[in-house]
Amino acid sequence: MSSQNLCMIVVAGASGRMGQAIIRVIEEMPGAKLVGALERKGADTIGRDAGELAGVGTSGVIITDNQDDVLQGADAIIDFTTPETSVAFSKVAAEHGLIHVIGTTGCSQEQDAEIAEAGSNGRIVKSGNMSLGVNLLSVLVEQAAKALGGDDWDLEILEMHHKHKVDAPSGTAYLLGEAAAKGREIDLHSNSVRSRDGVTGARGDGTIGFATLRGGSVVGEHSVIIAGEGEQITLSHSALDRSIFARGAVKAALWAKSQNPGYYSMLDVLGLSKT
User: Fold this and answer.
1) Helix crossing, 243-256 with 132-147: angle to 10°?
2) How many C-beta atoms lie closer than 10 Å to residue 75's C-beta?
3) Would you call 136 helix, strand, or coil by DSSP?
4) 82 falls in which pLDDT band (50, 70, 90)?
5) Would the pLDDT of 3 be above 70?
6) Is 163 marked active-site?
7) Is 33 a residue of the active site?
8) Are 100 and 79 in contact (CB under 8 A)?
């Protein structure tokens, strides 16, 4: 495949667990080529070969903190970092006409708005989860929430991740919550319950509850429980390997190469979007 047909990808947070998983996927996926690896200033992996660190052999791509040099000649940047870093990258990507694939979670409403604004000039794909299974689950949750009204059916979202995850609830839990809220035609933020402690009183009709568990090395477990009188429906997804997120992110970069500027989700990439 000629270099013109390849998607030249820079990985941000290249020495982290997700960064290394993305590098491994780029190495094996046709149409993708690793051309840059970024890390925060002062990281002890700066100067190392990104391919060797990820276990795929010498790549010739050296981990650096110099984003200006690394973005030259790139088509896309894949970013599973921090909300602040993702906001900054969204503006840089828009200025350089780059694809920006964002798997970062924990963004505030204000940060999401800044990223979406950058999508008017660039091509941004952002999702709380990049896997096919979770995005298909979100479609099913929306349909179920629409069919089962909030007066007679209570909806709870349960998630568990490894003990090192720093944000809660997870981006995937929010994604599923947004799908449920869309199905019910309500606003998630004003109808969600994030914690319960002490004497809370009876559960409010129509609310969407979140429960968070952390421990061990769990990659990701999510269940949407819809409970009615005398019956209960559970829709769930188990992530067994973080390569599913990396694979989705690289597919998103390849897909976005032929798209117009805009702010996209994985539902668009996977052809599951209704619009």
Assistant:
1) 90
2) 20
3) helix
4) very high
5) no
6) no
7) no
8) yes
Report CA-CA distances (Å) from 142 to 131, 136, 166, 185, 263.
17, 10, 27, 10, 21
Burial (0-12, 13-18, 19+ Cβ within 10 Å), 272:
middle
Q: Identify the residue whose tokens are 């989860």.
A: 129
Segment 244-258 mean pLDDT: 96
Q: In whole angstroms, what is the distance from residue 122 CA to residue 256 CA?
A: 10
User: What rounded mean pLDDT belongs to the chain?
Assistant: 94
Given 100, 126, 161, 237, the catalytic residue: 161
pLDDT at 275: 52
Structure tokens at 18: 């997700």
258 phi/psi in degrees, rounded to 5: -105, 10
pLDDT confidence of residue 149: 84
Please tell me the pTM assigned to this model: 0.85
Q: What is the pLDDT of residue 69?
A: 87
Rounded CA-CA distance 46/39 in Å is 7
Q: What is the CA radius of gyration of the chain?
A: 20
Confidence of residue 257 (pLDDT cuts 50, 70, 90): very high
Looking from the CA of 36 toward its CB, the CA atoms found within 13 Å total 23
Rounded Cα distance between 23 and 247, Å, is 10
Tokens of 37: 């690896």
**3-state class (DSSP) for residue 264:** strand
Please tell me the total number of residues recorded for the chain in this structure. Answer: 275
Rounded to an integer, what distance in angstroms lies between the CA atom of residue 124 and that of residue 117?
10
Nearest to 173 by CA among 113, 98, 243, 225: 225
- Cα–Cα distances (Å) from 198 to 10, 112, 154, 191, 212, in that order, read 48, 33, 20, 20, 17
Minimal CA–CA distance to 49: which of 29, 28, 23, 75?
A: 23
Among the listed residues 146, 162, 165, 182, the single catalytic one is 165
